[in-house]
Design brief:
It is a single chain. The chain has 13 helices and 18 strands. The protein has 398 residues and is of the alpha/beta class. A hairpin with a 4-residue loop joins strand 5 (70-74) and strand 6. It binds flavin-adenine dinucleotide (FAD).
């Protein structure tokens, strides 16, 4: 059987561009397809990446806008401050980063095709375009985002949270008053837990020059989120300027969905590879690109599509426990109303948990902190007594 390409990547977002670059570097004949003429637009990202990014992908200095070393964690009544001595995360210009990754792929021999994929044949390796054309490939990689056509074509069902974000300018003094702190305003992110937006949360991410990306994901519609964000700004800052507004979607991870079927493999938002608690997707997806590229190469070299299945096995082995912990945390938070959240934060402070979170907290590996809380017997000191039974059920304690 002859094919037009060794690998066709659907979607030239950061994940599609990264996997196509790895495959081209391995000497494969690769095409990447995107329906947009200008990839990266409109912005749909808060642009925060943990320091682990450097282990997972290239991050050029030019796209780094800021770095942070900690966070202020808020409920209505309480604020916790957690931090490390060194930078823990980078705030990036996501649009420039997407372009950097795509250019890197094209410069290394990946062919960029501007077209919309409307369906695929997973068994025969055919991608069908909206203009009636089609191409064939030994492997098709779905990196076409939260509403993935490729994922649907292999029988997956996907659900997403809505997310909204604004670029806002706020004076330093007002930000310090909001945090009840005079620490440098651009060294910290803020997160806010409110019962109305659980299981999501609200974030304030500092860029330089008193500009912030303020956004949230939740079960609400974009319209409700816009009202929520406007109320948040009005209640917490006596003056501010909204520069831009953005909307997006965050996939909900579903462990029943397939990552591989016949000649098809999924990575990134198309595979709902997004951290349940934070909605961050890039680090895991970049790691998955590394994993997947080895199986794709092997499958093509040996002309054996069954080799692709190794990717599903390796992904599950590496991430299923972490995702499961994050869902447990999310399910626990979901039980709390605003008064419970205040109680929870009060108890965290009373039990010196700011220090524990500072030491064991890791944006990408949250199970480490949860395990530490369990080990120290803290879980039942920080949640309201009437929820003990439900939390026992969620975590499966005996
Ligand atoms: C508001 C918000 C804030 C976020 N903040 C962060 C953050 O701070 N840190 C973090 O790590 N993650 C964050 N995320 C998640 C992160 O943005 C995604 O995980 C990431 O964009 C996934 O990249 P991707 O390449 O898989 O998909 P996408 O970036 O969605 O790219 C998919 C590409 O596929 C193309 N495409 C789609 N369908 C087709 C088709 N049928 N034919 C051809 N092309 C197609 C699209 O045009 C697009 O270019 C955030 C998400 C949102 C919504």
């Amino acid at each position: 059987m002859s094919f037009d390409y060794d690998a066709v990547i659907v979607g030239a977002g950061p994940v599609g561009s990264t996997i196509s670059y790895y495959l081209a570097q391995n000497g494969l004949n690769v095409a990447i397809i995107d329906k947009k003429r200008q990839v990266g637009y409109p912005l749909q990202c808060a642009g925060i990446l943990s320091k682990h990014i450097f282990e997972k992908n290239e991050l050029p200095d030019e796209v780094i806008l800021n770095s942070v070393k900690g966070a202020f964690l808020h409920t209505n009544e309480h604020i916790l401050n957690v931090e490390k001595r060194e930078d823990v995360a980078y705030i990036i210009d996501r649009i420039s980063y997407d372009l950097f990754l795509l250019n890197r792929a094209v410069e290394n021999g990946v062919e960029l095709i501007n077209n919309k994929v409307i369906d695929i044949n997973a068994e025969k390796g055919i991608a069908y375009f909206s203009n009636g054309e089609q191409i064939t490939s030994r492997v098709i990689v779905g990196c076409d985002g939260y509403n993935s056509i490729v994922s649907s074509a292999i029988g997956n069902d996907h659900k997403n949270f809505q997310a909204s974000q604004m670029l806002v300018s706020i004076d330093e003094e007002l930000m310090n008053a909001f945090r009840k702190s005079d620490k440098p305003t651009d060294d910290y992110v803020d997160t806010y837990l409110f019962e109305d937006i659980l299981p999501g949360f609200l974030w304030v991410i500092p860029l330089k020059y008193n500009q912030y990306r303020i956004g949230l994901f939740s079960n609400q519609s974009h319209r409700q989120q816009n009202v929520f964000l406007m109320d948040f700004l009005k209640e917490n800052f006596s003056s501010y300027e909204i520069i831009e507004k953005y909307k997006g979607f965050i996939p909900i991870y579903n462990n029943k969905n397939l990552l591989v079927r016949n000649r098809v493999l999924l990575i990134g938002d198309a595979a709902s590879q997004v951290k349940p608690t934070s909605g961050g997707g890039l680090i895991i997806a970049f790691d998955s690109c590394k994993m997947a590229s080895g199986y794709i190469k092997k499958s093509i070299e040996n002309d054996d599509v069954s080799a692709l299945k190794g990717y599903q096995v390796e992904f599950d082995k590496k991430y299923s426990k972490e995702f499961s912990y994050q869902f447990k945390v999310q399910n626990t938070l979901n039980l709390l109303n605003d008064a419970d959240l205040d109680y929870f934060f009060e108890k965290l402070r009373e039990n010196d948990c700011e220090e524990i979170i500072s030491e064991y907290g890791d944006m990408d590996n949250q199970s480490r902190l949860v395990k530490e809380f369990i080990k120290r017997g803290l879980i039942f000191k920080i949640i309201p007594t009437f929820l003990f039974k439900k939390v026992v059920n969620i975590f499966g304690f005996r």
